[in-house]
Amino acid sequence: MTIADAEPTAAPVPSQSTYQSRVADYWNAEENPVNLELGKIDDLYHHHYGIGEADWSVLDPTDAADVTDPTDPSSPADRQERITTELHRLEQAQADLLASHLGPLTPADRVFDAGCGRGGGSVVAHLRYGCHADGVTISRKQADFAAEQARKRHIDDKVRYHHLNMLDTGLPSGAYAASWNNESTMYVELDLLFAEHARLLRRGGRYVTITGCYNDTYGRASREVSLINAHYICDIHPRSEYFRAMARHRLVPTHVEDLTAAATPYWQLRKQADHLVTGIEETFLTAYGNGSFQYLLIVADRV
């Protein structure tokens, strides 16, 4: 299959619900510094959170004589740059972890990035495996931005982005060796989403998601989960529904990892990044701490 063979057959404008149109409007208008400033470091723009232990020395002032409180916003400007760089490093670690579970892949393989945002995940997968990648987003602005980044990197012959609905892409059935969602499952119905992944993946293909979900053992969605939903106009699913929906669509989990503890330092550091905070940081930390919200990695094979 050539790159041209993967052109979608669906209508140029995605068929979408009123809610999905609101989501598209949100991302078409979004200019959040926490997404843009981090991406400017190396032109890898991610729309997800980070994992791993943070380097807390980035909070230190350049010269201890300048300020006595390292969390004081009057600290030197390069402190902001160090924090921004460290947050991006943690986000890149998350992207690398997801990509590491897609393989083994070859340069001849195709992968599908569902809800690709500004395109960082597709680039990471291509750089790691040399594979072809198709990213799909419901936001025209994001698709155009990601395509321009691929052109600048001279990889647009292998990494392409489409303004399409990830629930109904029109991309060729059985053409993909791997596919994923990185923090985008909470915007769609899981049955519709996994049906499309099962259609696109070849038998034995690999599906990976990293996602926030609410903990069923806690009961109903907590207040914190409701606040996160309102902040991102999303609908976070219960943990158990992922596994039920996967089973209904020939996706068999082979690896599940709770990344909640690994994600906590990212939020602790971001909370102190005065130039990047969005106001939702403490809510995430509370939800992680009380156990009502979890950050999961799920790897599944298409059977």
Automatic annotation (TrEMBL):
Residues 113-208 form the Methyltransferase type domain. GO terms for biological process: methylation. Pfam families: Methyltransf_11. Keywords: Methyltransferase, Transferase. It comes from the Bacteria. InterPro entries: Erg6_SMT_methyltransf, GPPMT_Stmyces, Methyltransf_11, SAM-dependent_MTases_sf. GO terms for molecular function: methyltransferase activity. The keyword Methyltransferase applies. PANTHER family: GERANYL DIPHOSPHATE 2-C-METHYLTRANSFERASE, ZGC:194242. This is Methyltransferase.
